TrEMBL record:
Compartments it resides in: Secreted
GO molecular function: metalloendopeptidase activity; zinc ion binding
Name of the protein in question: Metalloendopeptidase
Lineage: Eukaryota, Metazoa, Spiralia, Lophotrochozoa, Brachiopoda
Domain CUB: 384-516
Length: 518
């Protein structure tokens, strides 16, 4: 298979190898009720019901089952809100779509169980496993040419860039098929036929001999200039089997769901999912995480997801880069056997054997794989970032964004810097932002009105570098950020400039770094 190299941001993504492994496993959810009986019939080939003419991806019979389960969920919502729920569906999308996920009857039944408090507290069987695509084969995909709104040619390159992002980070490969020569297997069908940006979670099973089109719907709004590639990376993540990060079973240790603030009928987007996260920590910076205001009924509150650690609010909902945890889960499920027979290198700082470059490490963002995650990753654009060793206690140094020493001398778009800081054993590291340009801007890093950082400085001060750190951005004349102290004698600081346009006030940041007694 040949894949063209395409950019995701300023990162180059390229195809590498394909690996061999067995057929998909089915060790998933405990299926109960009519949804289970329907799924069993389909799996055994007894339900010979043609697929919907509009290619929903599931049978008409299952779609009817979905409608019944959704009515039950609306009744549950009425109890949550303690008032009648009138869901006004104005957009053109299939009945099995909630938010950005299209559900099978089995998956929707699981959500119903979670909302009623009857979910199974089990540590296996996430959709990643029981809906996994076949190992050792490229995942087929095509672009729908039959709908009234096919994806335009220029936007198809954005889709390819999103696929390339997953290819560079994992052993997964995608293979394009012309609509005239589709494979006799399940394939992803990128279409703009309906409203919204949505996908199924994991591979859909289809009865042999029947159509196997699995839609990933991308209407024109999905191709935002800043977030377009990341949004599609997110939807492909669903297709590979990833649920939303905020629906993890351990989410109550990290976020608070404000149920009263959720729009009526959207509660299913916040139901916990049963499953195993392969040992990865909850990550506010996952590309699968919602923004704090997702599906908010603003007459009640603008916040539906509140992080327990408020300093991570700026990290939630980012769509610029796959998080280390996103990549690690997919590699654990799809790529566990790709390096069989090749000794794993000794990876530092939470890294693990790269499933493609088996002699290197797959590292948390900011660290270098060929250096076994013990050195900072190379800079991009202007020279910046290095390993800093503080030999005394106390001892102080300064790090700052490049090209911003003078007023109107800005940092470059797509700038990347990485600083790995170490202090003497038994000490810790203190971080404190100081004014970049006194009497002018103390910090000037591009951000959204909602607070989500576009350009940011990220401080990884915990023991786990794999988890997204605290991100800081915005335009401030006075700094009010509290000082940050590392949990050990090592920390990592990243600077990322994702905004693709230059303007005069992109002045950056300045940070004092000091070793202090524990």
């Amino acid at each position: 298979m040949v894949m063209s190299t395409v950019g995701f941001g300023m990162t180059v993504w390229s195809a590498l190898i394909v690996v061999a492994a067995p057929k998909p496993m089915n060790i998933g959810l405990v299926e109960t009720g009519e949804a289970s009986r329907l799924r069993n019939k389909v799996a055994q080939g007894e339900s010979k019901v043609p697929l919907s003419k509009t290619v929903f991806g599931i049978t008409d019979q299952e779609m009817e089952q979905v409608k019944l389960i959704k009515k039950d969920i609306d009744n549950i919502a009425m109890k949550i809100h303690k008032r009648p729920v009138q869901v006004q569906k104005t957009s053109k999308e299939p009945d099995n779509v909630l938010g950005d996920i299209a559900y099978t009857a089995v998956q929707l039944a699981a959500i119903k169980r979670q909302l009623t408090g009857h979910g199974q507290r089990r540590r296996r069987g996430i959709s990643l496993v029981h809906n996994r695509w076949p190992l050792g084969k490229p995942i087929p995909y095509t672009f729908d040419e039959t709908s009234k709104r096919p994806i335009p040619t220029a936007q198809r390159d954005v889709v390819r860039a999103a696929l390339a992002a997953w290819e560079e980070a994992t052993c997964i490969r995608f293979q394009y098929f012309l609509p005239s020569s589709l494979p006799d297997s399940t394939y992803l069908n990128f279409t703009g036929a309906w409203d919204g940006c949505w996908s199924y979670v994991g591979m859909l099973y289809h009865t042999p001999g029947y159509p196997r089109s699995q839609p990933v719907n991308l209407d024109p709004s999905c191709f935002d200039v800043l977030l377009g590639v990341g949004r599609i990376v997110h939807e492909v993540g669903h297709a590979l089997g990833l649920w939303h990060e905020h629906t993890r079973y351990d989410r109550d240790k990290h976020v608070v769901i404000n149920w009263d603030a959720i729009k009526a009928g959207m509660e299913g987007n916040f139901a916990k999912q049963e499953g195993d996260n392969k040992g990865t920590p909850y990550d506010y910076g996952s590309i699968m995480h919602y923004v704090p205001t997702s599906f908010a009924n603003t007459t009640v509150s603008s916040t539906t997801i509140e992080p327990m650690e408020s300093v991570y609010k700026n990290s939630m909902g980012q769509r610029f880069k796959l998080a280390f945890g996103d990549i690690k889960v997919i590699n654990a499920v799809y790529c566990a056997d790709t390096c069989n027979g090749i000794p794993a290198p000794t990876c530092k700082n939470g890294g693990y054997q790269d499933p493609v470059k088996c002699n290197e490490c797959k590292c948390p963002d900011g660290l270098k794989g060929s250096a076994y995650c013990a050195e900072p990753a190379p800079h991009k654009m202007d020279v910046c970032g290095w390993k800093i060793t503080l030999t005394n206690v106390p001892e102080m140094t300064t790090i700052e964004s490049p090209n911003s020493a003078l007023v109107y001398q800005t940092y470059k778009e797509f700038q990347e810097c990485n600083w790995l800081i170490q202090s003497p054993p038994g000490s810790k590291i203190l971080f404190e932002f100081v004014p970049k340009i006194p009497t002018y801007y103390a910090m000037a890093l591009t951000h959204y009105v909602s607070g989500l950082c576009i350009d940011y400085v990220e401080i990884k001060h915990t023991l786990d570098f794999g988890r997204t750190g605290q991100r800081f951005c915005g335009f401030y004349h006075t700094l009010t950020f509290p000082a940050i102290i590392s949990e050990s004698n090592q920390a990592l600081v990243l600077f990322r400039a994702n905004y693709p346009y230059n303007f005069s006030n992109k002045l950056g940041f300045k940070l004092h770094v000091q070793s202090v007694p524990s």
